[in-house]
Protein 1
Amino acid sequence: MLKIVKYVIRDIIRSRIIIAYALILLAASFGLFNLGGDVSKGLIGMLSLVLLVVPLVCLIFGTIHFYNSYEFIELLASQPLKRGTILMGEYLGVALALCGALLLGAGLPVLLYAATATGFTLLAVGLALTLIFVAIAFLGAVATRDKARGVGMAMLVWFYFALLHGGLMLLILFAFEDYPLEKPTMAMIALNPIDLGRVVVLLQMDVSALMGYTGALMKDLLGTTTGIASAAGILTLWLLIPLALACWIFRKKDL
Amino acid sequence: MKTIFPLLMCLLPAVAEEWHVGEGKTHKTVAAAIAAAVEGDTITVHSGIYQESGLKVDKSLKLTGRDWPVIDGRNNGEIITITAPGMEISGFEIRNSGVSSLEDLAGIKVSETRGVTVSNNRLTGCNFGIYMSKANDCRVVNNEVRGKKGGEQESGNGIHLWSCDNITVTGNHVRDHRDGIYLEFAKQSVIEHNTVRDNLRYGLHYMFSHDSAYRHNRFERNGAGVAVMYTRNVEMSSNHFVNNWGSSAYGLMLKDMTDGRITGNTFERNSIAIALHGSNRMEIENNRFSENGWAIQVQRSSSDNTYRKNNFDGNSFDIAADGELDNNRFEGNYWDKYEGYDLRRDGIGDVPFRPVSLYAVVVGRIPSSVLLLRSPVVHLLDQAEKAFPSITPERVVDEKPAMRPNPLTRPLTEPSKEP
């Protein structure tokens, strides 16, 4: 499996897209930290950047990469290798390469300008989102044979998690305005890894005081060490479930 | 001639005598010296620990501590009660007054008199620190008042003024009490250059205390910085409201007050910098609001307020209103969220700015939607609302937003530093 991972990473670096991704992130992060003038403003800008861009790039890049290396996967499948090993090798290769790009593009500026707990939480959330969304991309790519449909689905998934989910949440909140909504809201937040990541970072920035009762509840649930552990647990579920599903489908699939 | 001279001496007022209290001095206790002294005398207390309480001063004396003598009340009743006019007390460390649920027991109480000066004392662990009731024209200067940090019930106020006229409170440091400085029916008072922090409830609390002013104070990490309630005509200028942070914390809360001038203050990192409830005819000018949760929360019941030339910078929400506001005028403020342009190049934005965002309205209605803070969908909705305003209050608008931060009148002097 390690050999596959190595090969995939080398292949990805050779395509240079990932280098462009890292450089764009780097430029944008440096720009945000220098423009705002103030570290906390820079971090807020970085938060928006990471939450929007990382899932999008991971979904599209992961999907396209999977389709483009279809022949290579077929070749591997003809060797005495387990299907699970092949898929995991591909997954780890893509995910690690993207994580490396994120560490270079966002990690370096954070280390230089905002080496605080908030900065590192932001990075950790970025890495978690990378792992999760590459897994979701693989699930989509494994499920459909058609490349156009796969890429379309990836974009839809991104659109849902980045925008629609929040809109739906607002709609539900408005519809059930008269009921106590703190716990349902948090459940809905947990249903979206991007939102969960955002709230974890915001709690590090100590905005919980703005959130009144909800914030106090949230801080109790997520702000403490056990809370961060439970958020990490939910994010791990978000990683494991799509990955397991992808493996399951890939194992039964007629290539 | 020789016979007339002593006669003349008798006619002159008696020369003030100085009494000394301390180890090896005329008197061993402060109480004995007070009993011996007459009107106009000076009592100098030398360093040492005096376990006394219930000291009643009913003649005009000058009570001075040399090298910080300690008067320890051992949690037993009131320590010093002053009822004489023109009394001066300074240089003492006064600690551990009693606590009672029937009376307000204080370290130094000034009651039904005038012209008393309380200066340069340290009060620690007293239920109430300095307490003035029905006292006029008094001064409270450069004292350090520190409470015991109990619950709100067993803790009293640091400096408490009840039914007083014309009191000056300057250069004091008050912490760990219920309210740092509390004024009830205290008219024409001036509160200046004080540092008030870590109090349980309010840093400075006005009730029915008309025609007053507070300037150049620093309010830090109190339950709420300043609360002005049921009061007319208060000047609030050049104060710092910092880190009054928590789920129901304010920098400045105005409740049922009229005719206030809030100028040149700095509000930094407060949950809510200014909250206006039923407050009318306020002029809010030249203040700096930065990194607050809400810069200004206005209730509909507040009208005829003017917000001019303030700088809003890095607040999560600039203005929140619970509906359409009557006669609240916004003019020439600098908003960091303003995205307009200035083709005329006169420093005034050409398009009006609506400081209440759609999301602020939503959060006002459904508090739990605050979990969507900084989510892209919120940004998108705010932009859509800006293009076609429909839900946000129509009349809350700054017609002449400043393109650059307004130059602010700087505080003349910084609040005094912790001793």
Note: The longest helix of chain B spans residues 376-387.
Protein 2
Amino acid sequence: MMLIPCPFCGPRSQVEFTYGGDATLRRPAGDADPSRWADYVYLRDNPCGPHDELWYHGAGCRSWFVLRRDTRTHDIIASAPVGEPLDGTRP
Amino acid sequence: MTASRSRQGSETQRWRLPAGGAIDRSQPLAFEFDGTRYSGYAGDTLASALLANGVHLVGRSFKYHRPRGIYSAGVEEPSALVQLATGARTQPNTRATMVELCDGMRATSQNCWPSLRFDVGAIANAMSAMLPAGFYYKTFMWPPTPRWWLRYEQLIRRAGGMGRAPTEPDPDHYQHQHAHCDVLVIGGGPAGLAAAQAAAAAGARVIVCHQSARFGASLVGSEAKIGARLAPDWSEGAVAELAAQRDVTLLARTTAFGYYDGNLVGAIERVAGSAADAALAVAHLPRERLWMIRAKAVVLASGAIERGIAYANNDLPGTLLADAARIYVKRHAVRLGARAVVFANNDRAYAGALALREGGTEVAAIVDARPASRLEGVLPARARDAGIVLLPASAIARAHGRLRVCRVDVVPLAGGAATSLDCDLVAVSGGHNPTVHLYSQARGTLRYDPVTASFLPDGSPLPIVTAGAVQGCFDLAQALRQGDAAGRDAAARAGLVARPAMVHVAPDGERAAVEPLWSVPARGKAGKAFVDLQDDVTVRDIELAAREGYHAIEHLKRYTTLGMGTDQGKTSNVIGLALMAKQLGVSIPEVGTTTFRPPYTPVTLGAFPGHAQGPRVEPTRYTAMHDWHEAQGARFVNAGLWKRPHSYPRAGESEDAAVLREARNVRSAVGIVDVSTLGKIELQGRDVAEFLNRIYVNRWDTLAVGRCRYGVMLREDGIVRDDGTTSRLDAERYLMTTTTANAAAVMQTLERLLQVDWPELDVHAASVTEQWAAAALAGPRARQVLERVADIDVSNQALRFLDTAACNLRGAGEAIPARLFRISYSGELAYEIHVPADRGRAMWDLLLDAGQPQGLMPYGTEAMNTLRIEKGHVVIGAEIDGRTTADDLGMGRLVSPAKWCIGKPLLDRPALTAPDRWQLVGLTALGGAPMPRGAKLVADPDAPLPNPILGHVTSWCFSPHLDAWIGLALLAGGGARHGASLWAVSPLATARVRVAVGPPCFIDPDGERLRG
């Protein structure tokens, strides 16, 4: 069970969080080509190694934030509020 | 040699030594095994107490039903598995070596009938030539239909046996304990204690968990000196010193069973220990406690487990590991037999031989696989000085005996004639396997060490350090040094400044070197040589697997079942893979090891849920009016975590009748329903209208203050996610309602959109579900009730359909601030009334009182469901089923063409716009027949199978308004089928009903009632 560093609350047990998927996805423009929309809705990379992903601290501050995590080892590399750089420093 | 089988009076511990051991002779304990009464002492395990009574035969083996004894003194026990206790507390497959004896304990042997000594199932042993590895896979392949395999499986399961699980609920409880520390020390032997001392000296918060009841148990009876003190005294001193420190937690009887992400170690504490069940209940103690320990660094001082050597009949009772022999003599003061033969390939086993001799057992010989030139260590010298005969370069080729070993054949390894030695005990040691399970789980790699012929830790990326026997170190002085170093290292990894090394002066002792000997070649038809005692895997099984191509170690395991028992092959796996290496002509590391999966030892299932059982699995939510519902005799239904009134049957009234009465009363007079469970989210900010435009299919920038609007929310893929009304309370203040089921999920989605996708929007969202109690007042007389209590004008002109207004409700008591919403789910004139949750009951009482002259009655969710089906309203789970679009549900016209919203870009996909999509329709059962449950719609119920399914019934009820069974259904191309007649069939209920298809709304399609 991972110990997840919430950028607002500090390290907390994984049971307090919900996984939110790839943090690098961006919603296409409303009038974008339907195939781009289909990619956005259905297609996900499955990287082996560091992955920037969204997590939700539902049993804590209810914040969504970005976590960089190694998918092979579950090592947590960094976390940051949405929109702030993941500079590798833990809060 | 076996004990007398007297059923009267208790056995007298004839095999107990007169002095010594860590047992309390002032506390005798009575216990029963297979109906015979025995006695033991406090400090005994069930195994040591049985041995003290001369009982060596304790069970029958899994496959061949061979007699088996006590093989070890610890967690690794493969054969002394007993059924403990009776009734609800019975525990199958309990290792007698791990059970602390308590007064009145009752245990029985497993897998034998009619008795342990005479077991009919032992015919399997005689037939064993027909039961090789893979026997089941090869034999039960015919006839090739699964039905036959299922039959065979039943027979196989009955013959192959373990204990029986209890059939009654567990009367005990189990606790969870979360803990954090700087340094977790796993193992409370000399290395672990030295590590704990070093870490504590550095100021670390330390937790030490130790598997057995007594820390430093391995030193009991040792004559070695640590500094000026005897080793056992040093250990007691170290434990006392650690226990006195505030930041040190000592957990005895606690097995660390798994290493998980984030340096989380799971450990199970047997709180009950030796306490009797009654004592447990009185003290309200849990039977076990599950520890979840987050450590900054871990010291693994988990020791090593001895392994045997395979030779013919190496499973006879009276055969045990040399370490176990030493432990039973030293710790439990048991005389194990009259005459023993020790079979070894290493120095450490000599300590067992010396202990046996000290414990009153004549040692006939030490049969050592090593040549004489290698028997020069301290311990062999001591054995020689004690006059024990050493037989170098020899091996036991075969043991003889029926229910106990009586003789062994010793052969020179270079070849030559066998000599027979009479004995009633064989102590065997094939070397030691370091307990690297948790190290491996901590992503540690292992290397094969040829000196100790074992796998040793070789590095982990995680903060875990090892010390002592787990490192292959069996020398006390070195173990203490390693422990000290590991403790300091761990403290440093936890960010603390370690003190200088402590000096533990202790004599150099055992050499770890081992002469690898895995099995002794059979001579002629010698009998079975077991590798895995629990699963009855023999040397020949391994050879067969090799011949048949099951070379990969994971295949070998599954083909032969090697290491698949409850002991997970602790004493056998390395032997098995070494034999496979020999067969394949490769080195042992090339064969590799199987995965060390958690748990390291079996964990009681009840410990994992802990207290989260039955009603405590998840919280229960009650509305502010719950007590009233309960007092009225309401039947409740679970809606998510909520308890909602299903109906309010009166005395002598059935639930069905109550539902009809309640629904009818809403249509004809007025009813009230508790809708507090609806999700309520307050939205504030300048951009709420824009936000709503983006998340709902319809338009929100046109909603005026004081107005409500129904909205439909889609998923990104265009499927309907949720529905509900949102009301504009003020210029920048809105209240959104969601379905009860989706309240939390919708809130989470809104938060994600606002925080991640559109942080530029000035919108704040807060869940206020619990802040407001809510009731819906519905029926043609609803206004007459409301106008008696509301202090504002609620006429049709002042409070129009879809208007909202704040007011006070006035009765005899204090005024209740309320918010009115003129919205309707039932299709009747209706008001939703929200009040602060703590005034919910007062509001409810006030309305009921005010409504009495109008015939106001409460109604439950079932009547509400009837009313909404009549009106054709959809509900989450039934019609909004994760597959339907707004258009499917007849709400396509809500989707505004003037703006973008979530899910809209994918709505135009061909599959979502196909004319034969399943669309919402209404059904009326013809001929007064009831609508079958979960029915499918077909054109011809007698068509040959597979009969094309045109749709399915999503909701159904008896409509008191129409006096007919009606339903809602999703039907292929349903919009174009109004007027058709189909069949609703339920093959499970073997029911079929002719139904008329029509529009989904059965009442007041123009909405005159709700606008009136």
Note: Strands of chain A lie at 3-6, 10-13, 18-22, 50-56, 64-70, 76-81.
Protein 3
Amino acid sequence: MNLKNVATTGLKLNMQMPNAMEMSELLQRLIQKPSGNNFGFAREAAASIIEERGLPGRKNEEYKYTNLSKILERNFGEFAGNEESAADLSALIPTLSENQLVFINGILSEELSNYNLPEGISVSSIEDSKELIAKDVDAKSDEFLLLNTSSLNTGIAINIAKSAVIETPVVLIHITDSSKNQAVAHPRVLVNGAKNTQAIIAEIFIGVGDALSFTNAVTEINCAANSNLSYIKIGNENGNQLHVGNTQVNVAEKAVFNAMTVNFGGKMVRNNLHISLNGSHSEANLNGLYVTDNKEHIDNHTVVDHKVPNCNSNELYKGIMNGSSTGIFNGKIYVRQDAQVTNAFQSNKNILLSDNATINTKPQLEIWADDVKCSHGCTTGKLDKEQLFYLRARGIGEHSAKLMLLDAYANEVIERIKDENLRTYVQGILHTKIDE
Amino acid sequence: MLKVKNLKASIEGKEILKGINLEVKPGEVHAIMGPNGSGKSTLSAVLAGREEYTVDSGSVEFLGKNIFGSSPEERAREGLFLAFQYPIEIPGVSTTNFLRAAVNQVRAHRGLPKLDAVQFLKTMKEKMQIVDIDQALLKRSLNEGFSGGEKKRNEIFQMAMLEPKLSILDETDSGLDIDALKIVANGVNTLKSADNATIVITHYQRLLDFIIPDFVHVLYNGKIVKTGTKELAYELEERGYDWIKAEHANA
């Protein structure tokens, strides 16, 4: 994966960490030291970069509003490694597909998983791809991605064979369990879709436990020529969870990649979705929904990098924010000089249900080509008073009128989830969350 | 049914209604006419419970109860219906789903059981004929992309579904061609009974050829300055509103 072009413009690094010594100690605690050493080279290379750079603090432009380092530093001072809880986690696990893999604190649980993979799709240890991962260690990568690589022990690779059409989604359920003590997980997933494939991959992040936890997930997706892959990420974490997700996607010619990122909470969540359109006539669709309450903080950073001609990207992110929660949307679109005849559209819409909720939204378009159709827009407001009154004037109670409007608003995104089980699951969480 | 006594109301400190008196009995049709800015739409908004308006004094009794303590939804459930001058578009909410929620909440308030999907559809099909509205339209997002005529027909269709005691039609005729106007008026006439009443708010006499009023009131500068029968509407059509303005200015 070549991130060099992007990283030079996409990431402004702050190398001057005020307390580099302490940060390094924090890193020593966060970086897991598994017994196996199959990723030795990649891990050491990543660790040395991240130790030099430190985790991004407030002065880092990319993490200005999402200062995870501070919380990590304050809370993982005593961290001594994950401890398994005796709790029965099976009740937490929704049944969404015949192909479900469950991970507890980043480790695959054969016991809780249930899968019967159809022909054309295989799941293997990510160890088989260790050379690829080693090659990808890039000094300019996101710090948390490097942190994940430096802790790499286990992970899975999903390979979809050439021309396979997989109708049942592959659902990966990640549970971060901090019921016994603080927990840190570095889930790692690699998806390789060969030519002409079609598949849906979903990752669901759930939290359990009262202690603070930190999930630092990395998912890399390669869409070969003429493939059609959908990736759905659903975060339903609790108020004790910190989450960073780096999703890196490469899209080859004539391929279509659909991303859906849905978040229903977490203490502090950061999603980095980075899509490179590397082959001409490829297409990326990015949809997102974030629903926040209390003091939750959800940050979506997206990058669509148009590198070649004749590609399309469409992006729609919607937020519903209540309480004193914070939402952040930062959407970058790069249209490289070679990327003539590009269509790139971006929209971010927000509803603030409370006067104390905040949204920071920033579209960022950098265009070097000239034959380009590009647009972006953002709106932020309260629930439409006129619509609310119209419904109430027909006898619909204020509460159900609000739910009806929010449901319709969110559905513009949710209805784009093609798989019915996953769509119903998301709608169910939405209804619970907005009905509080 | 409706007793409005010396109603004064304002918005953002500006007094719009300056002492309205009006009584509507079951079975009656009242027309309220008046030039632009006379307070016609404010009156309907205050009756329906819009929160932007402040009621400064006076009282409104609906079915023997003071309505000012009630929310818009409570008034609707009691049987007050406002057909909007500009029906609101609500993307993502279909007319069918919206009406099912409305009908069932109104029914619950009246102590009636919920309509299940089959009963609801059956009722809907009956009422659709009253205003000649297409079912395909009702599956679409509420009023979104509807033509002016479709929006107004949808208002009367909702009225038919909710079976109100008192309907206030706020400039329902505005922007309608004659065919649409006839359909809408025919709908209103079909729904008319000895137990319910209608207030027709309009600028023009045209609608009153099809919905025959028992009383015509002229609203000017926040007050009802003249009350008569349908002949008054013809006179207004003939002479315009200037003589009312002049008369009132002299008074």
Note: Chain B has nine helices and twelve strands.
